[in-house]
């Protein structure tokens, strides 16, 4: 054994020396980079250092020259990011056997020994050609193959065979399809909260793909070549070089910050990354938000140029597909189902054509897009949109026409935004382009969120979505001049990021737009009012006790008319759905719908009791009980013990469910606990009927938290004979809802066991705090105020969501002898906005109320 160790010692020393040389070289490169050297110098330098190490290992392991070592992929291109894999191929004349196979294995082991993360393949020339034909990824990797050591003639034969089998047209189609599929994995948007700077739309991969197609088609080897071939302009070539440097710089910094191959701009790194890149905070934005806006603008430019170049590549590779031009008017023509300008001076000669182009796209459904020439001219001619352009009645009429078309509204607004036309025509819009919203529930930039809201409103007009939004569709189809809602949607968040109340600031922009575009006073007032009040309905529905007639009356007074109510309901629904796929759920939809119908009845002349449907609910509940075979009057034993507010807070269906379970045991000595799956709420409904106790709410919230459920809504009622009749809506925050039926028995058993014990409430246990909250903390807000009737107090809480937060609140309230009557628990991304209706002697004492408020604030701190 000692002899073996002595024999291996020189090899281990050599490996250590190679590793040290590589690491020292990489440290010097990093120091130079930190001192200001270019990203290109770092990437080339790292590739060169790894080249040296690979060649040295070939010598150390005595790998014969017949085994040619080839760099492929990004490493073959001569670019190596700090923690990227080193892609290598051993190229052979024939499959290895015996000693050669052992030498190759020894060489691969040595690569791992010096700390390289490698991607390794061993292939013959025939295998290279065959696998390249079957796998577009391998074909792409071999496109930039570079010989490091070995048989030059063998490598050149492989290159010749590879080139002979490379079909540029097939390669273009395969890479285009690959890009579509990759973009789909990222929801076809570069504007995510934590984009992938390599793979997301607008990332480095989009640039690399253009280079691969250009090289495979023998069109160019760099951006300057593409400009010489007139596939892009000289300005676009310079812009592409700058974009590439920026994205490379971002990715290099990410790798260094993470200490691994990390390409996602995670919240964990955004602040540090912004500092490393030299971004500074402003009065209204964090440094990370400034950096992310720059990133999104860059990604947007990448997607623009990517679209242009792919179209130009297609024109070169598939000339036979370019059909004859078909005139549309004096300024535009159709070429191969694409809108094309008749000449390069169209926009200079007739500036309104900058808007007319989008209108024509809507009016000619056979058009599938715009030619690269048209898109480039739109982008370069956007400077023509100035104050004089915006004041021209022709242009104002064209813009309104775009909003009034029966098709293509959202698509063309997005295209106008992509090429800078929308931001030039609406100066306020320019300020929100690519502006991130780090409020932890908006997952899109402000401009993309607004366009998503316009899309949602637009879908209410389409029959194909009627099965998804039947009520919305019915209301929209009966709403005269529904295009007014598109304008309200465009302006509802347009003042985000200016500081101050964006609803108030946006009103001025909306009013100015309406007046300049000749809208009537009635239509102007509606749009301005919608912008001002666009948050009101969601706040009332989700934060106030809408079973209180006074709450509904105040909301009805704010609305004033049924037309305004319908408009606000439609906009609110679209707005919530446009924040994030995770924010909308059936419970929110039910809250809004109940408030809508109650307000509608009130505006039509109903009394507050009729508006809330108290008598109607009782009648409907009785009908349901008869349906289930219960005789008339069977409900009175239970109902006589319930306050009127119970019937206001619960639907007829829920009243009937509770009654079926309790009519024969209104004085039950044992707790009655039942749970059921609710498709309406997309969760589990739980009913608890037991003798009231001060810490009951804390017991239940702690138990639900321990079982892993989020509480969407809690209705806590005390009967006239001292029983608690509480109901909850629960959701699994991470599940898909498919297992709810399986856990109903568990929920019932656990609650019954908990209620029969005499111990203090159990906490929900620990859980992992979201890293979103960690890096973008929410300052807790606690408000306690009496309601208008003076019978109860309203507790409003805003805080970061975390495991056990509701239990912490409930425990403090129980400790202070505060009774919870209702709770509305709203989770917006990583933030909670909860509202509780309370009563208790402590609330009548100002000093105790202040102490309670401080105690809650302390408990909500992260």
UniProtKB/TrEMBL annotation:
Residue intervals of the ACT domain: 685-766, 794-862
SMART domains (UniProt xref): HDc
NCBIfam families assigned: PRK03059.1, UTase_glnD
Organism placement in taxonomy: Bacteria, Pseudomonadati, Pseudomonadota, Betaproteobacteria, Rhodocyclales
Enzyme Commission number(s) of this protein: 2.7.7.59, 3.1.4.-
Family: Belongs to the GlnD family.
Species, as recorded: Pseudazoarcus pumilus
Domain HD per the UniProt entry, residue ranges: 446-562
Cofactor(s) the protein needs: Mg(2+)
Stretches for region Uridylyltransferase: 1-327
Regulation of catalytic or functional activity: Uridylyltransferase (UTase) activity is inhibited by glutamine, while glutamine activates uridylyl-removing (UR) activity.
Functional summary from the UniProt entry: Modifies, by uridylylation and deuridylylation, the PII regulatory proteins (GlnB and homologs), in response to the nitrogen status of the cell that GlnD senses through the glutamine level. Under low glutamine levels, catalyzes the conversion of the PII proteins and UTP to PII-UMP and PPi, while under higher glutamine levels, GlnD hydrolyzes PII-UMP to PII and UMP (deuridylylation). Thus, controls uridylylation state and activity of the PII proteins, and plays an important role in the regulation of nitrogen metabolism.
Protein name: Bifunctional uridylyltransferase/uridylyl-removing enzyme
């Amino acid at each position: 054994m000692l002899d073996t160790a002595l024999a291996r010692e020189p090899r281990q020393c050599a490996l250590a020396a190679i590793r040290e040389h590589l690491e020292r070289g990489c440290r010097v490169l990093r120091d130079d980079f930190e001192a200001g050297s270019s990203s290109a110098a770092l990437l080339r330098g790292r590739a060169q250092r790894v080249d040296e190490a690979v060649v040295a290992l070939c010598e150390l392991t005595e790998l014969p020259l017949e085994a040619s070592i080839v760099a492929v992929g990004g490493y073959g291109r001569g670019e190596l990011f700090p923690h990227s894999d080193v892609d290598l191929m051993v190229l052979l004349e024939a499959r290895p056997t015996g000693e050669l196979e052992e030498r190759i294995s020894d060489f691969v082991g040595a690569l791992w020994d010096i700390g390289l993360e490698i991607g390794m393949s061993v292939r013959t020339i025939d295998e290279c050609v065959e696998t390249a034909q079957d796998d577009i990824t391998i074909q792409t990797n071999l496109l930039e193959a570079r010989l490091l050591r070995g048989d030059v003639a063998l490598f050149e034969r492989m290159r010749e065979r590879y080139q002979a089998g490379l079909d540029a047209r097939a390669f273009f189609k395969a890479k285009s399809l690959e890009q579509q599929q990759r973009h789909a994995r990222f929801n076809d948007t570069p504007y995510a909260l934590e984009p992938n700077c390599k793979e997301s739309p607008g990332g480095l991969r989009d640039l690399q793909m253009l280079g691969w197609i250009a090289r495979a088609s023998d069109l160019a080897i760099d951006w300057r070549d593409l400009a010489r071939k007139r596939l892009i302009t000289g300005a676009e070539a310079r812009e592409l070089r700058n974009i590439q440097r920026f994205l490379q710089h971002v990715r290099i910094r990410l790798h260094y910050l993470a200490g691994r191959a990390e390409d996602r701009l995670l919240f964990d790194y955004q602040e540090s990354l912004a500092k490393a890149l030299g971004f500074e905070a402003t009065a209204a934005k964090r440094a990370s938000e400034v950096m992310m806006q720059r990133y999104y603008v860059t990604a947007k430019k990448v997607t623009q140029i990517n679209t242009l170049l792919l179209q130009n590549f297609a024109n070169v590779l598939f000339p036979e597909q370019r059909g004859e031009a078909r005139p549309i008017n004096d300024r535009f023509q159709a070429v191969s189902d694409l809108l094309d300008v008749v000449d390069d001076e169209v926009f200079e000669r007739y500036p309104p054509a900058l808007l007319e182009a989008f209108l024509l796209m809507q009016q000619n459904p056979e058009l599938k897009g715009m030619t690269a020439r048209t898109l480039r001219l739109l982008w370069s001619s956007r400077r023509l949109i100035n104050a004089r352009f915006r004041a021209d009645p022709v242009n104002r009429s064209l813009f309104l026409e775009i909003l009034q078309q029966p098709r293509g509204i959202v698509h063309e607004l997005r295209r106008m935004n992509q090429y800078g036309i929308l931001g030039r025509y609406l100066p306020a819009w320019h300020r929100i382009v690519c502006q991130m919203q780090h409020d932890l529930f908006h997952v899109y930039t402000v401009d993309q969120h607004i366009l998503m809201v316009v899309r949602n409103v637009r879908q209410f007009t389409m029959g194909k979505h009627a099965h998804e939004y039947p009520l919305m569709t019915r209301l929209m189809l009966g709403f005269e001049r529904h295009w007014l809602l598109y304008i309200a949607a465009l302006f509802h968040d347009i003042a985000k990021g200016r500081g101050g109340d964006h609803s108030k600031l946006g009103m001025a922009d909306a009013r100015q737009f309406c007046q300049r575009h000749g809208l009537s006073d009635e239509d102007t007032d509606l749009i301005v009012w919608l912008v001002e009040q666009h948050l009101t309905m969601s706040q009332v529905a989700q934060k106030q006790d809408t079973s209180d007639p006074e709450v509904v009356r105040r909301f009805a007074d704010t609305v004033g008319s049924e037309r305004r109510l319908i408009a606000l309901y439609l906009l609110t629904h679209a707005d919530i759905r446009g924040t994030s796929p995770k924010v909308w759920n059936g419970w929110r939809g039910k809250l809004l719908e109940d408030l809508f119908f109650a307000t509608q009845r009130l505006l039509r002349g109903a009394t507050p009791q009729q508006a809330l449907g108290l008598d109607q609910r009782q009648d409907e509940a009785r009908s349901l009980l008869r349906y289930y075979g219960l005789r008339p009057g069977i409900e009175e034993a239970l109902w006589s013990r319930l306050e009127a507010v119970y019937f206001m807070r619960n639907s007829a269906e829920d009243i009937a469910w509770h009654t079926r379970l309790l009519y024969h045991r209104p004085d039950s000595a044992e707790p009655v606990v039942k749970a059921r799956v609710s498709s309406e709420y997309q969760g589990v409904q739980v009913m608890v009927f037991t003798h009231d106790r001060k810490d009951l709410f804390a017991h239940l919230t702690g138990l639900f938290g321990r079982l892993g459920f989020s509480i969407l809504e809690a209705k806590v009622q005390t009967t006239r004979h001292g029983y608690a009749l509480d109901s909850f809506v629960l959701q699994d925050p991470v599940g898909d809802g498919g297992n709810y039926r399986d856990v109903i028995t568990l929920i019932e058993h656990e609650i019954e066991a908990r209620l029969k014990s005499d111990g203090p409430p159990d906490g929900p246990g620990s859980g992992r705090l979201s890293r979103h909250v960690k890096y973008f903390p929410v300052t807790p807000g606690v408000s306690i105020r009496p309601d208008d009737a003076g019978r109860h107090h309203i507790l409003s809480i805003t805080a970061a969501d975390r495991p056990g937060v509701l239990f912490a609140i409930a425990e403090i309230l129980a400790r202070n002898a505060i009774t919870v009557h209702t709770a509305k628990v709203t989770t917006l991304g990583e933030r909670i906005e909860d509202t509780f209706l309370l009563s208790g002697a402590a609330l009548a004492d100002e000093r105790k109320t202040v102490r309670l408020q401080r105690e809650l604030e302390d408990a909500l701190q992260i």
